[in-house]
Amino acid sequence: MSETTNARGAILTAAERVIEQLGVKRLTIAQVAKEAGMSRGGILYHFASKEALIQGMLARFLEQFERLLAEDEANDPEPQGRFTRAYVRSSLKMDEEATVIFSALLAAIAYDPHLLDPLRAHLESWQRRTEEELDFTTAAIVRLASHAFWLNGLFAMNTFTLEERRRIVGRLEELTRPT
Fold first, then answer.
1. Which of 52, 53, 81, 144 is the most exposed place for a label (fewest CB within 10 A)?
2. Which residue ranges does the Swiss-Prot or TrEMBL entry mark as DNA-binding (predicted)?
3. Helix, strand, or coil here: 178?
4. pTM of the prediction?
């Protein structure tokens, strides 16, 4: 991994910590620089603006989620519903490691909701893929329940234990299998 990639990753992690510890309103280039132990110019070298920083956070989330999806899909021996099950499992994994997505989403929503356009495009693509495997209604139910995991974490409203969430995921996975 290159020095630039490492620096960008450290900056994005610092931005996530700022949001997690201080709230999205305190996400500034100066605050991220302080958290990262860098100069403001060092941050701006890698991310030319706050908007670029938020775009970087969202891009990192999408890369991580796509990687999880690909891994889960590749490890599922049953073809019918494979992508949708991977989507459910990956959603739970992202819920367990929520900082990345939640920080990026909060920042984008607060700063400029149009920054969520790349996420919207991915969601449409993922929706189409689930509908290729399952009927529309089942695909929608499974996807929307997966999204609820994310949103509950985003707003710190998750009242389910990890074991309860895993049982819910198990049931969602059952919906993806032929009857």
1. 144
2. 28-47
3. coil
4. 0.83
